[in-house]
Predict the structure.
Amino acid sequence: MDNHWKWPQIEAACRYIGEHFGDQLRQSSYPPHFYEFGVYKGTSLCLMHDWALKVGLGKPIIWGIDSFEGLPPEPFGVAPSPMFKPGDYSMAKENMLSTDACAAIVQGAANYHGCTATIIRDRFAELKKWDNMREAALVHLDCDQYGSTRDALFFLFKNQLIRKHTLLAYDEFTTGGAGPQMAHNEALHFFGAQAAEIFHYCYRDKKTNVMVRQAVWEIC
Ligand SMILES: C[S@@+](CC[C@H](N)C(=O)[O-])C[C@H]1O[C@@H](n2cnc3c(N)ncnc32)[C@H](O)[C@@H]1O
């Protein structure tokens, strides 16, 4: 777990699920479903698997969704964060591979790590629900921006994959632009949901001097 310090929200969310719902989940015959929007090379996805095991939740079923094209531009008129630009984190461009090849590589890495994960190569706005997707115990949103976070949350709410006590863990909640916070507020308002923040961690980005907030919210 070399990288666990980069994603404190994953540890916090898994510990919270373990403490509050561990017994219930262990008695259930179904493993919890975890979703990650923004997989890139799969590092934080494997961390979700490791923390679930560490807190005694057993192996989760993990869904990892990524276009592997990198960050898209924000919708017209939306203030972008100074921390990110379109095309950042394009695994396909960095490795001169097709996006399908990237998905296959990440799938292989996740399998090798021992994760029960399905890597889906898609843009969040075009994603369709798979038959065996179940309500999320945990959603990790690591797509940095307003537009992408909004597309991910609208997909989950529209397909009833968010329920009471689902945890929404954000690697970036505030980022000095419209950002994921605006998408979170918009999606909750649109679907008439409420959430309480149960964890946050703030740090200053060295390059841009922007204060970043990482956060976990519980649907209530
Ligand atoms: C910061 S990286 C994710 C880092 C990753 N969690 C890790 O462990 O290193 C953001 C990822 O989100 C993906 N992404 C951002 N917006 C997207 C969208 N609208 N649809 C699909 N993928 C998107 C990018 O392709 C990129 O791989």
In short: Helices lie at 8-27, 43-54, 91-95, 99-113, 146-158, 179-190. The first strand starts at residue 33 and ends at 37.
